[in-house]
Amino acid sequence: MKDINIALIGVGTIGKGVVETISSNGQLIADRTGVNLVLRGVCDRDKEALASVDDDAALIKTSSASELIARDDIDIVIELIGGVNPAKEIVLSALRGGKHVVTANKALLSNSWEEIFAAASDSGTYINFEASVGGAIPVIRAIKEGFVANKIKTIYGILNGTTNFILTKMAAEGMPFKEALAIAQEKGIAERNPELDVSGKDSAHKLSILSMLAFGRVISNDEVYTEGISGVSPIDIACAAKWGYSIKLLAIAKNSPSGLQLRVHPTLVPSSHILANVRGEDNAISMRGDLVGESLLYGKGAGARPTASSVVSDVIDIARRVAFYGKKNPAPYNVVHDRSRKGIVPMEDITISYYLRFSVTDRPGVLARIASMLADNGISIASVSQEERKEGQTVPVIILTHKAREGDLRKAIAKIDDFDLVKGRTVVIRREE
Ligand code: HSE
Q: What is the spatial distance between Cα 56 and Cα 58, in angstroms, rounded to a whole number?
């Protein structure tokens, strides 16, 4: 049995989950894998967090990450403090100092991918990051290992539990966004500051990590078009349902002949599609590869125990390599391997169908003017419905379009929103079929 010494930086919710997992399942892990995970040190600025870890004669408790990771007896550093700084400095100094790293930090990876992977490659160290996307779901491993022989064509992901919980609640109870968000916060699903989640940025960070691995090129966060869910109303969810669609915050990556499409936005998904049936806080990723066809990975995207499961799995993966094959990584995975040098397709150039909700004054000719402006911009209507009849008052008119170029749609909507009889901004939600 080989001992592998671990330093844990960040004893928050997930960190505590990792400590508990090593303590409760360490023997099982050792029996299965032949490595004994030894928690050698824990680091946190918060004294109470440090105190929450059971004392052990061999365990170092410190508020200094640099001192802990500089120790010769540390093999693997687990970074669980989140955010870009100071996590970046910690991860880079660990890698440069020859320590292997496990992190769940999607903001850091999607922000500083090249620097971090260069540091790992230069020092022959391993960096694993399964928990950065999809919590317990082994999606990183699926792309790097299970599907490694495939050309990945598309990724559709529900990558954020908070927003999926909110949209599920809105759909089930006709509840407005703010009320559903408040419930998510009460239940501890949403963070106290839920900005990253509801704005779609958390999903965008995760999509850029998956896309980098799947498509073999560096993708920065700002290359992912991102829209959050705060503009989705119960009426849109109800109208979409009448037409056989659910509204989900999808993270979408497509490898098309004209380039990569990378986008996160509320999306109408056919209610019969498997992703429409991913409810509550759960996450799911549907991937299409040239060999495997469509595959779905589904599970818990957050929470202490599910996320700790992935973190500890990453630790075990490195621990076994280090214990049985040597301290250095002899064959780093070529993250950047794309030979096609495809660019990112600008949003204006994507072709997709739309759900449009206009708020109009119910007068003869309004619909004809809207339809004519859409037609002038090459946009063909698939279905129309007016939800109420209140002559002279504002009513919602819903239009589903056939596929159109986003740039043309934007031009048409800007002009329609200037019509006197159109009140407020038109709601535009993209539709995947
Ligand atoms: N806040 C994220 C979510 C989990 O709601 O899915 C951590 O990535």
A: 5
